[in-house]
Amino acid sequence: MVLKKYTSDWIGNFTNIKCEIETVLSGIHCLIEHVGSTSVPQLDSKPVIDIDVIYYDPSDFEIIKSQLEGLGYYHNGNQGIQGRDVFKRDGCNSNCR
Predict the structure, then answer these.
(1) Is 75 in a helix, a strand, or coil?
(2) pLDDT at residue 92 in the model
């Protein structure tokens, strides 16, 4: 993957995605954080917005998974790190602009 020059658009993209996820996870105690290289101001990065959804009740996972799948994400396993679950999505269809 090619690195792109930093753009403040990445912050706006994260904000839109966060809003979208917060909407479907309403009622679930969780934090949604912008992580990875696009979260670092002025850092050239791969143009992929990485997000952590941090939840506290393990029984919420299946609800979170279902809601993320409803937004077009797919579960991609733990990618070799125990205790982590990775979701991916191609493109963005955020309604929270």
Answers:
(1) strand
(2) 58
| Residue range 54-91, pLDDT digits in tens | 999 999 999 999 999 999 999 999 999 998 999 999 86
CA distance 8 to 40: 10
Burial class (CB in 10 A: 0-12, 13-18, 19+), 12: exposed
Return the SS3 of 80.
coil
Q: Mind listing the pLDDT tens digit for each residue in 47-59? A: 999 999 999 999 9
pTM across the whole model:
0.86
The span from the CA of 81 to the CA of 97, in Å, is 33
Task: Give CA 37 to chain center in angstroms.
Answer: 13
**Assigned token pair, 74:** 């797919």
CATH dotted code for 9-88: 3.30.460.10
Query: Could you tell me the residue ranges of all domains in the chain?
Result: 9-88
